[in-house]
Amino acid sequence: AGMFVFSERAMRLGGLHPFLLSSGMGAAETAALAAWNGALLSRHGPQLYAPHDGEVETGTVALLYAGLTLVNAMHALVFFELLDRIGAVSSAVMKGVQLVLVFAFSVLFFCRYQASQCFSWLKAIGVATVVAGLLTYAAGAR
Fold first, then answer.
1. Is the N or the C terminus of the chain less surrounded, counting Cβ atoms within 10 Å?
2. Does pTM top 0.85 for this prediction?
C-alpha cells in the first residue's frame, strides 16, 4: 500500500507520467534481476532453469527472460495508468479483490493437480489479514 501512495504522489505532485514512472522502476528491477540471473547462470549454467532430465541453452533462457520482461513492462504500465486514474486507495482495494479471487480460483481449479493450491485455514487467515489491512488502510485514507 505504501508503494501505491508514493507512486501516486510522484505522479500527482511530481508531475511524473505513469509511463516514465513504470519505465524507471521497471528498468531498475530488470537490471537487478538480470544481474542476479546472470550470476546464477555463470555459476550453475543454463541447466539451472531446465527440468532435471532436460537440456536448455543460454539463448533459450535469454529469450524467455526477454519475453517475461516485455509482459512485466506491459503489466506495470497498465498498473501505473490505473493508479493515476483511480488513486492509491482504490488501487489497494482492487488488490484485495485480486487476492481473494486468486485464492478462490487456485482452490477451485488447481487443488486437484497440486496439493499446495488447496484450501487451508492458515492460508485463509493470511488472506483475511491482508484484506483487513487493505480495508483499514482504505478507511483511514478517507
1. C
2. no
Q: In this structure, which amino acid lies at residue 53? A: D
pLDDT at 125: 94
Under a CB-based contact definition with an 8 Å cutoff, are residues 22 and 77 in contact?
A: yes
Give the Cα separation of 33 and 135 in Å (integer): 32
Helix, strand, or coil (residue 50): coil
Q: What average pLDDT is seen over the chain? A: 84
Phi, psi of 49 (to 5 degrees): -95, 5
Pick 46 or 84 by higher pLDDT: 84
Supply 121's cell numbers.
485455514
Q: How confident is the model at residue 37 (pLDDT cuts 50, 70, 90)?
A: confident
Angle among Cα 120, 121, 126 to the nearest 5 degrees reads 100
